[in-house]
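> example.struct
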């Protein structure tokens, strides 16, 4: 991909969070209390276009909404979901390892960014980084590091593969269907629609597949429980 074609969405992350708070009836005072910082300090943070990734991670965790995902909507190196990634993520190490994998030196990255090599070295020694700088680094080497904060989805040839074969889970004929009403949260439906858009599965098939996986795991756990009680 040409560098000029690889662009991370231009986001004012503070405004994005403020809009989310308003639409979800969540106040800045509530968020500041959860973060353990004064409300005026939070207000100043949310007025900024960028923020440190550790702070954004904390906000995402508290609100149960992955704001890093907003930076992953145009170009993918991997297929990712809106789920928040691991809490022990060290973005400096990840960037360093990716540069080594791509055979790009700190000096070469510094030249691309118009920075001093020592400045780049300092950035990569930190576990967190300002989102604005992360955008610059991502675009400089055409790799979206914001994806690291999102959980990957295992997709292969437009089909999702699980430990069990799909054939075991899908019905062989219409008589095996039983119509039931299922209530799913908006967040869950967003995830299902997202996966459906990536694959050639329909939302109904994905719901059916998920229910069957749940039931099979439940049956297996019950069988294990019965076996354990019998042995005892």
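> example.seq
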């Amino acid at each position: 991909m040409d560098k000029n074609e690889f662009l991370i969405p231009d986001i004012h992350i503070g405004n994005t969070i403020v809009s989310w708070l308003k639409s979800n009836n969540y106040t800045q005072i509530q968020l500041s209390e959860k973060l353990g910082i004064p409300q005026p300090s939070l207000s100043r943070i949310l007025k900024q276009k960028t923020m440190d990734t550790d702070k954004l991670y904390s906000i995402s965790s508290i609100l149960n909404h992955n704001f890093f995902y907003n930076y992953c909507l145009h170009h993918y190196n991997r297929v990712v979901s809106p789920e928040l990634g691991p809490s022990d993520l060290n973005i400096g190490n990840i960037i360093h390892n990716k540069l080594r994998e791509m055979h790009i030196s700190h000096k070469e990255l510094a030249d691309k960014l118009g920075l001093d090599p020592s400045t780049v070295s300092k950035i990569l020694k930190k576990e967190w980084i300002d989102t604005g700088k992360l955008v610059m680094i991502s675009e400089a080497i055409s790799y979206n590091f914001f994806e690291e904060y999102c959980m990957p989805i295992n997709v292969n040839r437009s089909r999702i593969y699980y430990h069990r074969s799909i054939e075991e889970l899908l019905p062989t004929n219409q008589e095996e269907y039983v119509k039931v009403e299922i209530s799913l949260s908006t967040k869950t439906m967003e995830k299902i629609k997202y996966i459906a858009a990536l694959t050639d599965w329909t939302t109904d098939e994905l719901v059916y597949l998920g229910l069957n996986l749940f039931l099979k795991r439940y049956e297996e756990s019950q069988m294990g429980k019965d076996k354990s009680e019998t042995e005892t």
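> remarks
The two ends are 61 Å apart (CA to CA).
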